[in-house]
Amino acid sequence: MSQESAPQGAGADLVLSGLTKRFATFTAVDDLDLRVPQGSFFALLGPSGCGKTTTLRMVAGLEEPTAGTITLGTDDITHLKPYKRPVNTVFQSYALFPHLSIAANVAFGLRRRGRKQVAEDVERMLDLVELTGLADRRPAQLSGGQQQRVALARALINQPRVLLLDEPLGALDLKLRRQMQIELKRIQTEVGLTFVHVTHDQEEAMTMADTVAVMNAGRIEQLGPPEVLYECPATTFVANFLGQSNLVAGRVVGGSGVSGGGDGGDVVLDVHGATVRADRARAVVAQGDVWVGVRPEKVVLAPAGVAPPEPAGNCLRGGVVSDVSFVGVSTQYLVRMPWGQELTAFSQNSGHHERLRTGAAVDLHWSPAHTFCLDASQDAAAGVEPEDR
């Protein structure tokens, strides 16, 4: 098949093999191998400059790879012109034509290909994105969320095998963005197309995607279902970038992975003189020095020397509350530990317990099942946004 002819194969997995993009001395995407299953909602998540948008642009044909291949099913689309590829892209800017009606915007791709009868398809697309009755309006007469839906309908009407979404909700306010997250997932499920969504917003990726690939410096740090990445991060970057984590220096002293250890499935750790346990399945490293991790919402604070309402298993004593922040559904506590590190705990504002005050002496409790262990040679601050450091 000529590379300038449009692929004719049926929809199938999108596969990136050894995909690399260099700009002069800078490598934006570094030997990337990735498979996006057909019909899935797939998210590329990472900070600015990690290579996610460059990857998307190479799939769209807007950037030429330095090396590697892009295949869709049995079709090699690596060097096809953008308009020859069975993909469409929805951008953050929407890129609607202001002088055309909503119907004409949605029909633009079909008209360009020579289709005459498009009214029925346009009506079906507007119904899908819940804009029925707005066909005769201009983009300026619509809200930001409605304009986003028009851009989505314009892409979907072309029946692409893959829809690429480049930070599509970035221009919306928080409440509307969350509403559109639900709508995008509904539409993807209804049409059954492969969606590849690029975002730096962790909540957005976890809300919508079946599979998330966390990118850092042009490579995939970890890939999997959102709940697996969140509960079992493989690197300090993933632990910090996908939500928040408390990472405390520790050392494995017993249990699974240690010679002579007899503690079944647990890894036994020494953390600044305290004994802490972790489930072996969540320990990337199970011997020597490690970062001992626990998510803030898993930590239960109790006044010093007072047992928590439910037995937790792990305990770090001697903390002092250094800051209290009310954030609506929960209260965020910063707790300074005897070794000088500040740890974070979230407490749901359920009304079942009194809010602790700054200066209160507290102990931190959590379950061994919520502990994870990471390689101590990694930077404990990797993945932390600069303003959060």
Task: Kindly describe this structure.
- InterPro entries: AAA+_ATPase, ABC_SmlMolc_Importer, ABC_transporter-like_ATP-bd, ABC_transporter-like_CS, Mo/tungstate-bd_C_term_dom, P-loop_NTPase, Transp-assoc_OB_typ2.
- It comes from Nocardioides cremeus.
- Keywords: ATP-binding, Nucleotide-binding, Transport.
- One of its GO terms (molecular function) is ATP binding.
- This protein is an alpha+beta fold and 389 residues long.
- The chain has two domains: 14-231, P-loop containing nucleotide triphosphate hydrolases (Rossmann fold, 3-Layer(aba) Sandwich), CATH 3.40.50; 244-380, RNA polymerase II/Efflux pump adaptor protein, barrel-sandwich hybrid domain (OB fold (Dihydrolipoamide Acetyltransferase, E2P), Beta Barrel), CATH 2.40.50.100.
- 21% of the residues lie in helices and 34% in strands.
- The chain is built from eight helices and 20 strands.
- The protein has helices at 52-60, 102-112, 119-128, 144-156, 174-191, 202-208, 226-231, 236-241; strands spanning 14-23, 26-36, 41-45, 67-72, 75-76, 87-91, 162-166, 194-199, 211-216, 219-224, 246-255, 266-271, 274-279, 289-294, 300-303, 314-326, 330-336, 342-348, 361-366, 372-375.
- The strands form four sheets. Strands 6-7-8-3-9-10 form a six-stranded mixed β-sheet, with helices on both faces. Strands 13-12-11-14-20 form a five-stranded antiparallel β-sheet, with no helix packed on it. Strands 15-19-16-17-18 form a five-stranded antiparallel β-sheet, with no helix packed on it.
- A hairpin with a 5-residue loop joins β17 and β18 (342-348).
